[in-house]
Amino acid sequence: MDFKCSDVNLWKEALSSYSARIESLNKPNIVSLDDFYRNQLPPLIHQRNPNSYLTKTELSKLMQWKLTRGKWRPRLLDFVLSLDEALVKSASQKAFQSLPDISKAVSELTVLKGIGPATASAVLAAYAPDVAPFMSDEAMVAALGNSKDYTLKQYLIFVDKLQSKAKELSSEGDSFTPSDIERALWSSAVGAKMSDLKSVPDPEANSNKNSKRKRKR
């Protein structure tokens, strides 16, 4: 998916294939973790209004989701498991109350050990998908051309781009959030990767064909 693409139907198609792409990863618990992150966690957080917060258990599952959908880095999970419950609650509460000031919200969360801007973005996206998208590698590459810079400054540029794209695609009566844009980009990138893998010839299959040909001769 080219980020500059303005065809709403192509974006819808990419977004609607998200669940199938999640399943295609064939990773342990990815389907249930994704269901937790997208469908169960947001209402849990919002039930605690007006002082919404995240529990340590929820943050731990969110981190598992992030690492399973992306690159597995168990050390980050260890950091989360060693956090103080009260600290997780107060940091997330302050972060949610800081929105729509994304810079302040991320800064409130990154006081927690093991929580960088990318994980902070996942927390904010669970609470306010219409404001803050998750900072995934795939969406970063599509929107900014790289995914190596996980700074707050880079995230703010990323947010601005995805918010603008969501607004652009929503102008024709359809409704897209920045988080929809991120998922569509991720889905498209994973789909393209799978197509590339399928198109690479299997060297063993070719060698078997060649040996059969030789035997026939």
From TrEMBL:
Residues 196-217 are annotated as: Disordered. It comes from the Eukaryota. PANTHER family: AMUN, ISOFORM A. This is HhH-GPD domain-containing protein. It comes from Nyssa sinensis.
